[in-house]
Amino acid sequence: MGSDCLSFQIPVIDFSKVSLKHDRGSEGWHRLCIKVREACENYGCFEVVYDKILPKSQAETFSIVKELFALPLEKKLRNVNSNPFHAYAGQFTQAPLYESCAISDASDSDEVRNFVELMWPDGHDHFRQTISPMIEQLDELNSLIEKSILDSFGLGGKIDSIMACKTLLRLQRYKAPPNGDYVNGLDAHTDKLLSAILCADQVFGLEVQTKDGQWHKLSPSPNSFIFIVGDPLMAWSNGRLHSAKHRVMMKGHEERYSLAAFPAPVEGTVVRPQKELVDEEHPQFYKEFDYTDFIKFSLSKDGMAIDALATYKLS
Ligand SMILES: O=C(O)CCC(=O)C(=O)O
Ligand SMILES: [Fe+2]
């Protein structure tokens, strides 16, 4: 299917040395905020360097993720949720290499405990003890990025968060393609969650589409993360931040494992453009919408066939 696209470098932003408590307001923080905003406006994504999450913790996390996917399918199918985004997903004819498990509200230790009991009724403390600190660190990183976005628009003094969210953790496996051919791992999409922090275990495969329609293969440095703007963040920013279309393409003979932490807007959230981001130069781009309705529509047959967010555009 198709041919391999070229490797591409998106902006790389280092959050390793940043402390919200000490650095917010400094010249260095200001420069970082501008970089974040420009990357989100121009590409809808950037590579994140964050050495507070140690390579060793990432390696340990991927080793338990592999254990999870080695479980028989009937066990993984126990991972259910009324929201299909937050449950086991896989066995799709159009994406046969893909499967994922999810923990909704992963920052809640009871949710993690429930997930572990469901998968390993006899217990698996090592899974819980490995994944929980990783979620905590990803939450911290996400909060740094969120504050940098708010401050980049001069809004940090007025509001604490972009919108109320819980952390959805998705663990994903992509089987190696038959014959090692270049084939679809996960269909092209924009994220329906506020944003995403992604990391993968060694095997590349993530591709992003730039605004000119070209697809580019990302080759992030080992142990770095990718931040991606999702549709609700694009709507909140009045269309200024770009929700980047991305996909996973598989090639070669190795399986790919990845982990995604998404801030998921809570039930009842109304997504509306932040009023300070609407002015004469930037007229209101989207009508406000109920997040749950948006998700339901995005997942419907009609919604999947189009860019669901575009239906909320004001003409
Ligand atoms: O596996 C990846 O790197 C990307 C996953 C992704 O785009 C998603 O879960 O929305
Ligand atoms: Fe995605």
UniProtKB/TrEMBL annotation:
Q: What is this protein called?
A: 2-oxoglutarate-dependent dioxygenase DAO
- State its role: 2-oxoglutarate-dependent dioxygenase essential for auxin catabolism and maintenance of auxin homeostasis in reproductive organs. Catalyzes the irreversible oxidation of indole-3-acetic acid (IAA) to the biologically inactive 2-oxoindole-3-acetic acid (OxIAA).
Keywords, in A-Z order:
Iron, Metal-binding, Oxidoreductase
Domain Fe2OG dioxygenase per the UniProt entry, residue ranges: 158-265
Name its species: Escallonia rubra
InterPro entries for the chain: DIOX_N, IPNS-like_FE2OG_OXY, IPNS-like_sf, Iron_ascorbate_oxido_reductase, Oxoglu/Fe-dep_dioxygenase_dom
One GO molecular-function entry:
metal ion binding
Q: Which family does it belong to?
A: Belongs to the iron/ascorbate-dependent oxidoreductase family.
Q: Which residues form a coiled coil?
A: none
